[in-house]
Specification:
The protein is mainly β and 373 residues long. The strands form six sheets. Strands 6, 7, 8, 9 and 10 form a five-stranded antiparallel beta sheet that branches. Strands 1-25-24-23 form a four-stranded antiparallel beta sheet, with no helix packed on it. β13 and β14 form a beta hairpin. The longest helix is centred in the first third of the chain and has 7 residues. It starts with a strand and ends with a strand.
């Protein structure tokens, strides 16, 4: 794998993160990401939820060589932290943006608004200024290449004490059905499970469909990304962590190896969840089908040397453990980086997008351009 260039495509001094790419039929590229204020000067740090966070995107009309710097809005709701927009272009040209949301209450009122037990397990706090609670997932769609977006009814799982979050891209099946992975605690006292929503109407409504990875007593299953192989198998790539609420446990020590599970029936049922040896996973894992038949797997690497890594795997992802780890960059200042996503252009070039801190410790959206040997 040749590394052709690495460059920043967006920086405005604010906190930009969690990017995703989409390649339209006319060659236009969209880069979506979460945009929020940089709170360092105001509150002395950064946070992965913010009442001013919104989902935005940029256009590129020249194969990713340049990105127009005007921000276009997908979703911006007052006092809502809109999170992690993931773009999927359907076979008919419709663009889907899947994301999720945090909702807020005055500081100290979270247990009253959402219930004490629910808030203890599903809540958060924004710099001692607001209480926050994870809301439901979102899906927006555009039929005009991103000029306008329609937000569909919220995606939720019946009976869950928390809302569910989404980070993986949608998979379109040959019969036109759509599958979107989700994750979170599905019962009080549980760790996080991973599951699947299904749509039979091009993303205009969704139903809770199946459980990808059920909760265990030892492991959280976070941010699943599903990949459909050329043979038709669905492989779920799952960021997996120990219980992050254990007192005294450093968050960075909770990361485990990547776990996977496979469905042979288009997501109705899933096999055993299996740990992948030699594949440490501190970020969501994205898999891209290449024109060569191989699959490029990309991910952030949140321990020294911090950076972005990849593996070039076979078409069925059966060699995840053995595939050579390719270092795309290892110059990250710390672990607040990653959330990779990749597309392949008609000329064979591969664009891998992610967020990372620049020399001033400001988060930026960056791209590394690759070409398969």
């Amino acid at each position: 794998m040749q590394i052709l260039e690495t460059k920043i495509i967006y920086r405005d001094g604010e906190y930009v993160s969690f990017p995703n790419l989409a390649l339209l039929k006319d060659g236009t590229i969209l880069c979506a990401f979460r945009h929020a204020p940089d709170r360092v000067k105001e509150f002395g740090g950064i946070h992965h939820l913010d009442p001013c966070a919104k989902d935005v995107f940029l256009y590129s009309h020249d194969g990713g060589n340049t990105f127009e710097q005007e921000l276009h809005t997908i979703l911006d709701e007052e006092m809502i932290s809109n999170q992690d927009p993931c773009l999927t272009v359907l076979s008919g040209g419709r663009i889907l943006s899947s994301s999720y949301r945090w909702i807020f209450a005055p500081v100290g009122e979270g247990p009253v608004v959402w219930g004490e037990k629910r808030y203890q397990q599903c809540g958060n706090r924004f710099f001692d200024k607001l209480d926050a609670f994870i809301g439901d997932a979102n899906c927006s769609y555009s039929d005009d290449n991103g000029k306008t977006w329609t937000l569909v009814p919220r995606l939720y799982v019946e009976g869950t004490p928390c809302g569910v979050a989404v980070r993986g891209n949608v998979v379109e099946l040959p019969n036109g059905e759509l599958l979107m992975p989700y994750y979170n605690k599905l019962a009080l006292g549980q760790l996080s499970s991973a599951g699947l929503f299904r749509s039979t109407d091009m993303g205009e409504s969704w139903e809770d469909y199946s459980i990808i990875a059920p909760a265990t007593a030892e492991k959280n299953f976070y941010e699943p990304n599903i990949f459909r192989t050329q043979s038709g198998r669905l492989v779920a790539l799952i960021r997996t962590q120990t219980d992050t609420s254990i007192p005294g446990m450093r968050y960075e020590d909770t990361y485990l190896n990547v776990h996977t599970t496979v469905s042979e029936d288009d997501g109705k049922t899933w096999g055993p969840v299996t740990e992948i040896p030699n594949f440490w996973g501190s970020n969501p894992i994205h898999a891209l089908q290449l024109k060569s038949g191989k699959v490029l797997v990309t991910y952030g690497y949140r321990r020294a040397p911090f950076g972005i890594r990849a593996r070039l795997c076979n078409g069925e992802l059966t060699d995840l453990s053995e595939a050579e780890e390719i270092i795309l960059r290892e110059d990250g200042a710390h672990g607040d980086l990653g959330y990779t996503n990749a597309i392949q252009l008609d000329n064979g070039d591969i664009l891998v997008v992610y967020y990372i801190a620049d020399e001033n410790d400001t988060r930026v959206i960056a791209v590394t351009r690759l070409r398969e040997d």
